[in-house]
Amino acid sequence: MDEQEVRVVIADDQDIVRSGFNLVLMSYDGIDVVGQARDGKEAVAKATELLPDVVLMDIRMPHMNGIEATRVIRENPDLAGVHVLILTTFDQDEYVYDALAAGASGFLLKDADPDELAAAVRVVAQGDALIEPSITRRLIETFVAARPHSSFGIRSGTILRSLTDREREILSLVARGLSNDEIGAELVISPATVKTHVARIMNKLDAHDRAQLVVMAYESGLVKPGGK
């Protein structure tokens, strides 16, 4: 992905917001905005037609909101290579959590500066890191504590039994927001070995990326809110 152009679709119901993000992203080398959508249904259609690497997805949109659009994209095996980056504001925590549980790869505040936006798009396209790991962890802990018995948690709790002890250990570190390098240092193994383990965990749990692994780790009870 580092040597390839990151293809992006921008989904937001406000013309000025879409235009602004388009101007920002098109000013960066290696990022190409290939399409725009005004609502969730159009976002799904554009993702299906264009197969972008990343969909920048607003939450509150007409016809189909960003959470449902994310879920539809994630449930389509033909769109396995499409990553969703949620655009949000500070007062939408609950919606962001639901979007992560639906399969979004991360989230970013709408008032992020241009460099943060471009970096987030590249990170999400790679699928191997979290956006704002400490904030993601706080967000997930808050809502898992309030809603500990979701069907997602029950499903992931059952699937977690397929993991080895080492895989559970690595999953718990992923849930703390550690990178592959940091996990390798903690366990005294190479980052490449960590990456292999994470890929196996994602395959076993049918998870799209690290953000979904974090949700599974908390909702299944492998990691407790407030724990280390």
Automatic annotation (TrEMBL):
Keywords: DNA-binding, Phosphoprotein, Transcription, Transcription regulation. InterPro entries: CheY-like_superfamily, NreC/VraR/RcsB-like_REC, Sig_transdc_resp-reg_C-effctor, Sig_transdc_resp-reg_receiver, Tscrpt_reg_LuxR_C, WalR-like. Residues 156-221 form the HTH luxR-type domain. The modification 4-aspartylphosphate is found at residue 58. The keyword Phosphoprotein applies. GO terms for biological process: phosphorelay signal transduction system; regulation of DNA-templated transcription. Residues 7-125 form the Response regulatory domain. GO terms for molecular function: DNA binding. SMART domains: HTH_LUXR, REC. This is Response regulator.
